[in-house]
Design goal:
169 residues; alpha+beta; four-stranded mixed sheet
Length: 169
């Protein structure tokens, strides 16, 4: 029984370690040489290190060869003024509770960090917020974290540039 638990925990550790494989750290557009107008715009995809000192090679491909599984940009949802006022009131109420009850501060902080840890575990297991990036001519896919990324014009610039599996392929 204990051996089975040890094997299960070890397999989960290896699985979560390899979950960091090919996570996109940065996508940059490389400038064209001034004398070559026919050359297509190239995108450089840098992926994060899976383990320290194991830096993966960047992938350079024309923008036509990059395919995203979904759009990066998601339009913001509109909230009614009443909902905004209610949220502001609730936030002020919790701020007042935090000011009055200094003894519960360690418990609130522990609660926050436990919640953060559970959300990270959820992201590791379900991989909800990842957009898969495929480069034609390369095996495998890269994973682009939608929530942890900063993109020019909220991702609309990259959405206009590359193909999407939803409509183009």
């Amino acid at each position: 029984m204990v051996g089975g638990v040890c094997i299960a925990v070890g397999l989960f550790g290896v699985w979560s370690l390899f979950g960091a494989y090919r996570i996109v750290r940065k996508i940059t557009a490389l400038p064209r040489a001034p004398n070559t107008p026919q050359q297509p715009l190239l995108l450089r995809i840098d992926s994060a290190e899976m383990l320290p000192r194991l830096r993966p090679k960047p992938v350079v491909a024309p923008y036509q060869d990059v395919i995203l599984s979904e759009f990066i940009y998601t339009p913001p949802t509109k909230s009614s003024p009443a909902e905004l006022v209610a949220a502001r009131r609730e936030e002020d109420r919790w701020r007042e509770i935090a000011k009055r009850n200094i003894m519960t501060l360690p418990f609130r902080q522990a609660s926050y960090w436990m919640w953060k840890g559970f959300m990270l575990m959820k992201n590791i297991i379900w991989k909800d917020d990842f957009i898969h990036v495929q480069v034609i001519g390369r095996n495998g896919t890269f994973k682009f974290d939608r929530n942890a990324a900063w993109a020019l014009d909220d991702g609309r610039a990259l959405d206009r540039l590359v193909k999407h599996r939803l409509e183009d392929v």
